[in-house]
């Protein structure tokens, strides 16, 4: 049977095709069971009549090995008598893709789809060609398609049960997302993005294999023993992903010998650890030592040092300079790599935007985002330094995931000395500010402090905190009756922006020096306030039983109950709604 779903929508052929390309190249965006995909075949053909008998020739792959897939592709060419076309325009009419879909769960099997696109009539059909003996649960096993019909986008699926999970996912998840892509491509028409494709410099299938290998080899154990206050699931797997990328990049560039590297601003040193364990010799340098450094084996070289860009901080023996969220050193990474040696390349993953002097970078063009403009700015620095520079999008749990990777120089080795002199001249004219002293390249460069300042509102003066809490609670409890016979009141729900206007300017200045400001202060006082969606209200106090249940679930051994004074008992007009026995806080004047 055929199940059909229709949505009112009339995209252009171009925006329909662009949405199709997103669905093929980034299926993991809508299918959360997927990690990514690999296109084994992308073939364009012109003749419409060639495709009339295609469905009769659709059969499953016999094997997922590379030779068998290549044999399958050759068989398609011969059986369907396809006329190859080198172009990739909307006028080529038909496009055929064979897609491998990688599961997010590494233990699951990959699935395969044969995808036929009619560009002129705006339809796409998905055939499941996964070998019969392979059990997969990442994509529907039945044939389905999407096409434009009058002013409608139509989903057709050849399934036995239109209430099946697979069809409901197509109907409720994939189709709405596909329609959203068609409207977004229409609205973004003409807007140039700096980097849209992921992992363009390495093999996606090799990356999938290597990442999961390293994740099992290093990731799980490191998450268990992580001593830092940062989130291990983010930082560990992000560095595993970056290490995977670098290892494949060095392998794919046919770099026979093991590489040497210096990671400037290495932080927790995990990237250095993985690369060293995989056989590459390197050094990590950071202004501040981390707790986890002492847990690494002796061969992992980590050094606490403040790097001031200068002739004395070059690395002539390094093949690569790595800048992974290197903050104020970010614009200096290509300069240091250029001056270290002709053979030296760099990998740079910018996060926070800094100028050469260590000040925050300010956007010039309001039509661009701060991040996009800064990437363009850094790429221009790389090119000024004479590097052939590629941009790529990493698969990491971060919004700042576009990296810059050098691929040699724009000039020959015999002109290296002259080129470095030219780079120095360009740098002084276009980028440098302040006077140069001795071998330091910029006299007013401000490095990061070696002691990390606590900026979470916990270090504020106690009287200041209490005064702000009183301003907020007075606002929330405005009009609250002191009559204890009435129902206990949690007061109003107020926007944080409204509360900000009530706080004296001098106190706001002190708050703004802290990460998060007022919102952070309120969240720190979570025993009083409930903060959600930019709004604040008073919290209903928790009982002893509720706290014990939560702590058991979180496996907290040291249970502290009725130790701190109850704010509501001491400050709420109606007191605490709980008895002194039931309240998880102490009912006494604090």
Automatic annotation (TrEMBL):
Q: Which reaction does it catalyse?
A: uridine(44) in tRNA(Ser) + S-adenosyl-L-methionine = 2'-O-methyluridine(44) in tRNA(Ser) + S-adenosyl-L-homocysteine + H(+)
Mention one GO biological process in which this protein takes part, according to its record.
Answer: tRNA methylation
Q: Alphabetically list the UniProt keywords.
A: Cytoplasm, Methyltransferase, S-adenosyl-L-methionine, Transferase, tRNA processing
Gene Ontology cellular component annotations, sorted alphabetically: cytoplasm
Listed name of the protein: tRNA (uracil-O(2)-)-methyltransferase
Lineage of the source organism?
A: Eukaryota, Metazoa, Ecdysozoa, Arthropoda, Hexapoda
Task: Note the InterPro entries from the entry.
Answer: SAM-dependent_MTases_sf (IPR029063), tRNA_uracil_MeTrfase (IPR011671)
Q: What does this protein do?
A: Adenosyl-L-methionine (AdoMet)-dependent tRNA (uracil-O(2)-)-methyltransferase.
Under Enzyme Commission nomenclature, its number is: 2.1.1.211
Subcellular localization, as worded in the UniProt entry: Cytoplasm
Enzyme class at the top of the EC tree = transferase
Q: Does the keyword tRNA processing apply?
A: yes
The UniProt family comment states:
Belongs to the TRM44 family.
Q: Give the GO molecular function terms.
A: tRNA(Ser) (uridine(44)-2'-O-)-methyltransferase activity
State if Plastid is listed as a keyword.
no
